[in-house]
From TrEMBL:
This is ABC transporter permease. PANTHER family: ABC TRANSPORTER PERMEASE PROTEIN MJ0876-RELATED, FERRIC ENTEROBACTIN TRANSPORT SYSTEM PERMEASE PROTEIN. One of its GO terms (molecular function) is transmembrane transporter activity. It is found in: Cell membrane. GO terms for cellular component: plasma membrane. The chain crosses the membrane at residues 12-36, 66-87, 99-120, 126-148, 160-180, 205-230, 250-275, 316-336. GO terms for biological process: siderophore-iron import into cell. It comes from the Bacteria. Keywords: Cell membrane, Membrane, Transmembrane, Transmembrane helix, Transport.
Length: 345
């Protein structure tokens, strides 16, 4: 009886999140410097709209940005939930393994040496910075994983400490580049670190679909394994799981997801931490429900945050990373005031 009631509660929450996502998506298309009526927005989406200014604005500017926001938000949400399950700590965050700071340092290096690198690679400015961010995040994860692995396996605790060290090193490198850079370099690095979706286009959407799609499709398959890891690694081994192999796969998928998101949208704070934590409080720690709900919640939150960033001081556009922090931090603090248990329950 109790189990049936819990399942019904989970289903209601999942349905609510599923309804909130398309509403926030349409809202992101309709609102901006130029507001477009709901019926006209829906007509453009359904393909029943004639060529018009509204159609041009939605199809060429807002639609790729909204799709990218939904994908990046979903990636951050599901990788955050996975990281919390892997570390068995509801306050863990993907940045703990150093990928976020590594990606930021890689982007800063690309910006600092942009003049020479643009000539050598032939890439566009945004493409070069995105590539630098992805390489930086990948290198950070490789270093952290190498430091945390020995003949006995991979230590999650050592990985956490290595991630903290790599984060400090990458942050110092980024600060050093800011110190020696000129005003334009400093501005671009600062904006990148704040996060933003203003460079969204269909090429970036496809990159997010390819890289992020692999993460979004793969991580939910580890739901049962993550549930077992909540009992401890020894218990998981007794259940027949290859714990070392699973940890490696989870680390690589989280690194890929966060690397792709930072490469495409910069550093966006709080979604990977707040969304999974809130969802866990609502539906419990079962990763069969937690992972998809965190993905939907992350997509919804980033869509709403980006809409606020574009409209609150229109025509000035704020970095979306500032909005996610401003929206997420107070709500998260209020939750922690009423719940002092930081475990996985």
């Amino acid at each position: 009886m109790i189990a049936a009631s819990v399942n019904r509660g989970r289903q209601r929450i999942l349905i609510s999140l599923g309804l909130a996502l398309p509403v926030s998506f349409v809202l992101a298309l309709a609102l901006g410097t130029i507001s477009i009526p709901w019926h006209e927005t829906l007509a453009v989406l359904s393909g029943n709209s004639d060529a018009s200014r509204a159609s041009l604005v939605i199809e060429q500017i807002r639609l790729p940005r909204a799709i990218l926001a939904a994908l990046v938000g979903a990636i951050l949400g599901v990788t955050g939930a996975t990281t919390q399950g892997l570390f068995r700590n509801a306050l863990a965050d993907p940045s703990l393994i150093g990928v976020t700071s590594g990606a930021s340092a890689g982007a800063a290096l690309a910006i600092f040496f942009a003049g020479e690198l643009l000539i050598l690679t032939g890439l566009s400015g945004l493409g070069l910075v995105s590539l630098g961010a992805f390489i930086g995040g990948a290198l950070a994860v490789i270093i952290v994983y190498t430091l945390a692995t020995n003949q006995h396996g991979t230590s999650v605790a050592t990985m956490l400490l290595a991630g903290i060290a790599i984060t400090a090193l990458a942050t110092s490198l980024t600060s050093l580049l800011e110190f020696f850079g000129d005003d334009e370099m400093l501005r671009r690095i600062t904006i990148w670190r704040m996060g933003g979706l203003d460079g969204a286009n269909y090429q970036r959407v496809w990159a997010a679909i390819v890289g992020g799609g692999l993460v979004l499709l793969s991580l939910p398959r580890f739901a049962t394994a993550l549930n077992a890891l909540l009992l401890g690694e020894s218990e998981a081994r007794h259940l027949g799981l290859s714990v070392q192999k699973i940890k490696i796969q989870l680390i690589l998928l989280v690194a890929l997801g966060v690397g792709v998101s930072v490469a495409l949208a910069g550093t966006i704070a709080f979604i990977g931490l707040v969304v999974p934590h809130i969802v866990r409080l609502l539906i419990g720690p079962d990763h069969r429900y937690l992972l998809p709900a965190s993905a939907i919640g992350g997509a919804t939150l980033l869509l709403l945050s980006d809409t606020v960033a574009r409209t609150v001081l229109s025509p000035i556009e704020l970095p979306v990373g500032l909005i996610t922090a401003l929206l997420g931090a107070p709500f998260f603090i209020s939750l922690l005031r009423h719940r002092r248990d930081y475990g996985m329950r």
